[in-house]
Amino acid sequence: MTITFHAPQIVCISLTVFSFTALLFGGMKDVKHNVFAMIFATLIAFPVIWWGGFFNTFGVPQFIYCLVWFLSSLRELFKHGEEHDVSVFHLCTGMIYTYGLLIWGGFFSQ
């Protein structure tokens, strides 16, 4: 498997770095669940990974990605406005499984 970087992959990585940096330096205490931020992130993320070819086929990685997205959306909806702490461990874990699914699903091999 060859990993390639074209416009959608670069946009995806740039958005991830921006989000991680904003959380890391913007403060990770007293972060509130926000359903509107989830909707905004979805409106940006799904078109970018679609553009990169992640949804050209719908297999196990795409199903897992959509399931995790759906469950995360439900959590944001039901916990909207509640405070929670974000840890670097959880951010890194989330990035590892997200990028693992993207690599497995062919996003970086287009």
Description:
With 110 residues, the chain is mainly α. Helices cover 66% and strands 4% of the residues. Helix 1 packs antiparallel against helix 2 and helix 3 runs antiparallel to helix 4. The chain is globular and about 40 Å long. The model has no long low-confidence stretch (mean pLDDT 83).
Gap from first CA to last CA:
10 Å
Widest beta sheet: strand line-up: 1-2
Mean pLDDT value: 83
The helix content, as a percent range, equals 55-70%
Q: Note the total helix count.
A: 4
**Poorly predicted tracts of residues:** none
| Cα-based radius of gyration, to the nearest Å | 14 Å
How many distinct beta strands?
Answer: 2
Class from helix and strand fractions: mainly alpha
The biggest beta sheet is recorded as:
2 strands, antiparallel
Shape: globular
- Please indicate the percent range of residues in DSSP E strands (runs of 2 or more): under 5%
Element-by-element helix/strand order: HEHHEH
